[in-house]
Amino acid sequence: MAVVTERINVRIGSDSAMKDITKDVDEVIRVSELSDGSANVFIPGATGSISTVEFEPGLQEDVPNALERMAPPDIPYKHHETWNDGNGRSHVRATIMGPGMIVPFVEKELQLGRWQNIIAINHDTRERKREIIIQLIGE
């Protein structure tokens, strides 16, 4: 069993904007010496998430809109009282979605569904450059 760890950096808009990183994960697998295993995709930080979605314009609006209803900007957050930074909703959204996921790969191919893309989401109230850690475990 071998482990390969790579990092990529992506710029993502604010308020639960999404970035398709499927090709980046594919590339890490392609250039590795591994054929079969798991890709662990993780975003460090308390206001980012990794997930899957059909990455198309409608869902690029629907997902942030749904998160807006779940954790709206116009309600009180204790985080604001502590840090006065206005992004309590960003932390709540990131907690709901989670910072990472594992996707299997077989013969160097991610085992995603036909319309499934790996996405990085920035829930913060400002655009951010995000580091994504891609760790492959396999043989």
Describe the model.
The chain has 139 residues and is an alpha+beta fold. The protein has a single domain, classed as YjbQ-like (Jelly Rolls, Sandwich), CATH 2.60.120.460. Helices cover 29% and strands 38% of the residues. The strands form two sheets. Strands 1-8-3-5-6 form a five-stranded antiparallel sheet, with helices on one face. A three-stranded antiparallel sheet has the order 2-7-4, sandwiched between helices. The chain is elongated. 26% of the residues are buried. The mean pLDDT is 97.
Give a quick summary of the entry.
The chain has 139 residues and is of the alpha+beta class. The chain contains 4 helices and 8 strands, in the order ββαββαααββββ.
Per DSSP, the total helix count is 4
Largest sheet: 5 strands, antiparallel
What is the H level of CATH, i.e. the homologous superfamily? YjbQ-like
Residue windows where pLDDT falls under 50 for at least 5 positions: none
Helix proportion of residues, in percent?
25-40%
CATH class identity:
Mainly Beta
Q: What's the mean pLDDT score?
A: 97
How big a fraction of the residues is strand? 35-45%
What is the chain-wise order of helices and strands? EEHEEHHHEEEE
Question: Which key features would you list for this structure?
Answer:
8 strands; Jelly Rolls; single chain; alpha+beta; 29% helix; 3-stranded antiparallel beta sheet; 139 residues; 5-stranded antiparallel beta sheet
Task: Walk me through the topology.
Layout lengths: L1 E11 L4 E4 L1 H10 L5 E6 L5 E6 L3 H14 L7 H6 L4 H10 L2 E7 L2 E2 L6 E6 L5 E11 L1
Antiparallel strand pairs: 1-8, 2-7, 3-5, 3-8, 4-7, 5-6
